[in-house]
Amino acid sequence: MNKIAVFALFALLSGCVTVGSDPVPVGADTFQVSMTGVGFATQANTNLKALKAANEFCERRNLHMVPKNSGESGVYGWSPRQDNLVFMCLKSDDPRYLNPAPMLTESH
Asked: Three-state SS across 16-64?
């Protein structure tokens, strides 16, 4: 393969990469995960990947994820799309899981 083809393939594959952080504790039963979508990643794609990471984190602990707050930033095609998701990992009989408060979303 010539160098131009290799570069074009690399550019195509890296066009919508999403990079995430490991969840960190930020309070009782509460965690935060950050997800950054670079290139042409959409805000929706970045948000869904953050929710998926949070769900997987809670499931590994045999708990259920409840989103609390989502902070979005970035401009599509101009700057990386970011989502900072704050969530709780709760037992299935926890009242906060059975009747969760609405998730707050902030866009910057």
From this structure: CCEEECCCEEEECCEEEEEEEECCCCCHHHHHHHHHHHHHHHHHCCCCE
In a domain, 69, yes or no: yes
Phi, psi of 5 (to 5 degrees): -65, -40
State how many domains the chain has: 1
Closest C-alpha among 80, 87, 81 to residue 104: 87
What's the pTM? 0.76
Q: Is residue 7 part of a domain?
A: no
Asked if residue 6 belongs to a domain, the reply is no
Q: What is the pLDDT of residues 33-55, one digit of tens each?
A: 999 887 777 778 888 899 999 99
Give the 3-state secondary structure of residue 2.
coil
Domain extent, residue 59, equals: 17-107
Instruction: Evaluate whether 99 touches 92 at the Cβ level (below 8 Å).
Output: no
SS3 category, 84:
strand
Residue 3 covered by a domain = no
